[in-house]
Automatic annotation (TrEMBL):
Segments of skewed composition (Polar residues): 106-116
Family matches, as InterPro entries: Restrct_endonuc-II-like
Stored Gene3D superfamilies: VSR Endonuclease (3.40.960.10)
Organism: Brevibacterium marinum
One of the record's GO molecular function terms: endonuclease activity
Protein name: Very-short-patch-repair endonuclease
Region of interest (Disordered), residue spans: 95-116
Superkingdom of the organism of origin: Bacteria
Length: 348
């Protein structure tokens, strides 16, 4: 988690407004009005109070990749910033109520003790739950509020009422439950976004299909319910990355079936086991997916890693397995999947 601080919190650490302005040119990043994130551990000792928790391993540096993943990082930071603001407001309200020595009966009815009207939802809730966002689909923080449906520059407010059993408190604020989040994302976004989240949640044992279906049956909303069932049908806990999940969705969209994910071969001559992303026995075809990270590694890929890749592919080809690699960019083009479909269809 990133180190997020409000202006008030930074001032309490002994920084002036001028110090904050200077720190913004160094290790401090402005997320929104009055909210900042610590980018990294700098060399200035006077900034230690800002980044000490990063150095100690409690928080993480503000990671930047130099590619489209930065859009997701930016959104994640914006969500965390809004959480921080909400948490700080609740803390101040609670302190004010305590200082006033309010009557216990009145205190029980106070806003700080009631569920908040605003609930983080959809992609924002997914980020809070630690689910992967395969690629950028929105730059807006998404929340649900009763009877309000508006889009602002940085926030998308969806008009709905989330029942109490479909929300929980995370990071001091209200968020749709994991199961409700997965359902909402499946309703609102493309299947590859939803399936990559479902694959991750199922693989990590965070939920089950049964729990998701139970939550779905409790939803008043019926719009796009078929999309939710489709995403669940396509989900598979064996897949290990969003790129593999996207590929699986593309197989379905192009009418390609018969692929099994994460199959292992015993390669005695290599003194190791070879695990492939997708395996099609009838077509004697192996499909390997290069995630977004490999797209930007370039010459930075270690030579021994490239050599291992070359040897394992040659081992497969020597045994009459055809190997097709799909790059990140090719996941969003039809040509590679048309080629795979031709190979699979030729064996029927």
């Amino acid at each position: 988690m990133y180190k997020t601080l409000t202006t008030q919190a930074i001032i309490k650490l002994g920084f002036s407004h001028e110090d904050i302005r200077f720190a913004r040119s160094c290790c401090l990043r402005r997320l929104s009005r009055g909210v900042y994130s610590v980018r990294y551990v700098c060399t200035l000792e006077k900034h230690r109070r800002l980044w000490a928790s990063i150095e100690e391993g409690t928080h993480s540096e503000f990671k930047q990749y130099g590619d489209i993943r930065d859009e997701i990082v930016e959104l994640d930071a914006a969500v965390m910033a809004r959480c921080e603001v909400r948490f700080e407001k609740a803390r101040i309200q609670k302190k004010a109520t305590s200082d006033a020595d309010a009557d216990p009966n009145e205190q029980a009815q106070s806003p700080t003790n009631q569920p908040t009207a605003e609930v983080f939802s959809h992609i924002s809730a997914a980020l809070i739950h630690g689910l992967p966002v395969a690629y950028p689909v929105t730059h807006q923080v998404e929340v649900v509020r009763p009877r309000i449906n508006r889009r602002f520059k940085s926030i998308h407010v969806r008009g709905a009422t989330i029942p109490k059993h479909h929300r929980q408190r995370v990071l001091g604020t209200e968020v749709t439950t994991l199961e409700r989040t997965l359902i909402d994302v499946a309703r609102a976004y493309n299947p590859d976004i939803a399936v990559s989240m479902l694959d991750s949640a199922l693989r990590r044992g965070l939920t089950t299909r049964e729990k998701i279906l139970t939550t779905l049956s409790q939803c008043l909303e019926v719009r796009n319910t078929k999309k939710v069932h489709l995403a669940l049908d396509l989900a598979d806990a064996r897949r290990e990355s969003p790129a593999e999940s996207i590929a699986a969705v593309r197989f379905f969209q192009h009418g390609i079936d018969g692929f099994i994910p994460q199959v292992e071969f015993e390669a005695a001559s290599l003194r190791s086991r070879i695990r492939v992303d997708f395996f099609h026995k009838a077509a004697r075809l192996v499909v390997e997916i290069d995630g977004i990270g490999k797209l930007y590694l370039g010459s930075g890929v270690p030579r021994d890693e490239l050599e291992r890749e070359r040897r394992r592919e040659q081992w497969l080809r020597d045994r009459n397995w055809r190997v097709i690699r799909i790059s990140w960019k090719e996941l969003f083009k039809a040509s590679k999947f048309d080629e795979i479909r031709r190979v699979v269809m030729s064996t029927r």
